[in-house]
Structures are given as structure tokens and as C-alpha cells.
Amino acid sequence: MLGKRGRRSVAVAKDSVGPVSRETSEKYVDTPIAAAAEVASQVLTKGHAGTLPRPSATRIITVANQKGGVGKTTTSVNLAAALALHGLGVLVIDLDPQGNASTALGINHRDPDIRSVYELLLGEITLAEAMQKTPAYDNLYCVPATLDLAGAEIELVSMVARETRLRNALDLATIAEYGIDYVIIDCPPSLGLLTVNAMVAAREVLIPIQCEYYALEGVGQLLQNIELVQAHLNRELYVSTVLLTMYDGRTKLADQVADEVRRHFGDKVLNTIIPRSVKVSEAPGFGMTIIEYDPGSRGSMSYLDAGRELGMRGAPSPQGGQR
Q1: CB 3.0 to 4.6 Å from 204: which of 41, 61, 111, 263, for a disulfide?
Q2: Exposed/middle/buried for residue 71 (C-beta within 10 Å: 0-12, 13-18, 19+)
Q3: Which residues have CB under 8 Å from 289's CB, separation 6+?
Q4: Long-range contacts from 41-44, C-beta under 8 angstroms, 24+ separation
């Protein structure tokens, strides 16, 4: 008999990566491990299935939350991988001096000769020169971050148009040439000039919120900063998406937080919730996203679902409608 965990894996496979044939189902009903292996096989062999529609214009999304440890980088790289797996062109811009997004995408950002977002912000290189193709996907690129970025905020203070450096560097001709459908900007856990640059460059903000105590602490300040950027620097900026992360179904608190976030943000909250997972935390240590590291895991399937939901929703208007 297939255990509860195995049944769940096969069920997720049906919903997430296409129907499972009767022959395949019967072949993999011995153990939960076999069921998970079948899910992983389907994920990895699905390839560039092109099941998600290409947006009419490149969507530039900033992933922001000044509170640390809420899953910003994890969300950025795994949503990017999920979108790329479905045939869309994706560019991740790592604006965090720690360079964790670069690491998770398999980019050696400690290479002394690497060209990074630091030089891009200073205007020393072009976007095409800064872009690095990731090892796992031909259609997923990254502009890596190096430790030099740690001092960038101080250097930017005295520069002309310091808040618009990133927007000016995002060459639309290069984005079109590389077939980029989504630009995902991973912000540092602060509300400094780097995050402001990300907000000025983007049209959409995605806020990851963990399903834990004090989940909404600091979100009010983030929303105020978004309003300030809207008023003075980027009138098109708005919060389009909220993603619940680190959900632990064993606790009542997680459900209470999820309900509170949904009451506050309404239909901006994705239906998909990202579970707390050791595998998700392990993956960056191997220079991988969770979709590469353990494609049959709950974390992988959840991010695939979140990516699909983000793509199928399209770019909502600031008033809440779909474009």
C-alpha cells in the first residue's frame, strides 16, 4: 500500500507537472520514496514545456522585506527557476552584498575577475557584460553580487541620480535580445539605497512573509517606503504579490498568521504556501535551487506551483485587475 506521504507526492505530481498515467501510477506504488522519485523524474524531464504564457511586456519584480530570514533570496531564485523550467526567459539581479542568490544559481561570485552588479550600478559595465548564464538553465541568467556591493550605498550617496542607477542600467534592448520575460530583483534585508534602486527599477513588488510570530512586524514600514517611492520616484510601483513562506502545518499559529495576512492583503496573496523545509535550506549550499537539488520534495513542488500561479495571474494592475 502507498503511504500517506506517497499518495501526497503522486497527487502533487498530477496537479503540478501534468497527469500521471495509470501504468506509471501502478509502477510506482510500492514506497513513498519511489513515488517521490517519479515526481522528480517528471519535473526534470518536463523541460521547456512552455505551459506558461509569455507576458506582453517584461515583468520587473522586486522581492523585498527589510526583515531578515523571511525567504527573500530563497523565493527569488526558486521562483526564477520555476519560471525558467516552463520555458520563460528570466534574469535574477542579486542586490544583496552577501551574494546568496548568486550562490544558489551556481555562479561563483567570489571569482576576482567576475563582473557584478556593483560595476553595473557605477556605470562601468553594461547589462550584457554583467549577465551570467546559470549552469542549470539556458534561459536563466543572473547579475551576481560581490562583497564590493557592501560599500556601494556609501558610494551612491554622492552620485548623480543615485536612486535611478539600476533603472538606467536595465537596457531594454539587451533584455529583448536575450528574450527575458521576467526580471527578479533580490533585495538586501534593509530599506537603504540598494532597495530604493530596486523599487525604482521595478513595477511590481513581491513581499515574502513568513508564517511565524511577528510576521507583519516591519511590513508597515516597508509599505510606507513603497508609498514614498511611488510619490517621488516611480509612480507605477505597487505591491502585486504576497507569498506566505515557512509554513508549519503542525501549529495553529501558522494558520492564524496566514489568515491575518490574507485579511490584510486580500487577493494579492498567492494561494500557494511555501512549507518549512530543511531541503530548501540545504540547496544553496550545493549551488542549486530546490528544484534542482530535490525536485520531488514538497518545497520544490510548492515553488513550482507558486511560479505557475504567478505566471498565470499575469501582471495585475495597481487597482487589482489583470492586464
Answers
A1: 61
A2: buried
A3: 77, 78, 80, 81, 104, 105, 136, 283, 303
A4: 41/296, 42/13, 42/17, 42/18, 43/16, 43/17, 43/85, 43/291, 43/295, 43/296, 43/300, 43/301, 43/304, 44/295
Task: Locate 266 and state its grid cell.
Answer: 486580500
Task: Express as a percent the part of the chain with pLDDT over 70.
Answer: 82
Model pLDDT for residues 236-264, shown as the tens digit of each residue = 999 999 999 999 988 899 999 999 999 99
Looking from the CA of 293 toward its CB, the CA atoms found within 13 Å total: 24
Partnered with residue 242 across adjacent β-strands are 207, 269
| 43 vs 49: CA distance, rounded Å | 11
Instruction: Give the Cα separation of 323 and 318 in Å (integer).
Output: 10
